Amino acid sequence: MTEPDFWNDNIAAQKTSQELNELKNTYNTFHKMEELQDEVEILLDFLAEDESVREELIEQLGTLDQMSWEQMPFVKTV
Q1: Distances from the Cα of 17 to the Cαs of 9, 28, 35, 58, in angstroms?
Q2: How is the chain classified by DSSP, letter by letter?
Q3: Distance set, CA 46 to CA 6, 14, 34, 42, 61 (Å)
Q4: Are 54 and 60 in contact, with CB atoms under 8 Å apart?
Q5: Chain-centre distance of CA 60, in angstroms?
């Protein structure tokens, strides 16, 4: 994208920019999923000693589950 003649072919440049944005979004989503997984592991450890974290754990697991389904482009929702 920093090449001087990159934007000469406008259609190809737009396609490349769109692909880059999609890759950035995928990376950011997986990074967020990794953070959620870390939080879930911590909450699981706490759950053994403190039942009050159960609701937060369920919420985090739900969010993680939803994000994982959204990352599966081959799964069609009806």
Answers
A1: 12, 16, 27, 37
A2: --STTGGGSHHHHHHHHHHHHHHHHHHHHHHHHHHHHHHHHHHHHHHTT-GGGHHHHHHHHHHHHHHHHHT-TTPPP-
A3: 52, 48, 19, 6, 15
A4: no
A5: 14
C-beta atoms surrounding 73 within 10 Å: 7
Q: For residue range 32-74, list pLDDT tens digits in order.
A: 999 999 999 999 999 989 999 999 999 999 999 998 888 776 5
Tokens of 70: 């959204």
Q: Quick one: three-class SS letters along 47-69?
A: HCCCHHHHHHHHHHHHHHHHHHH
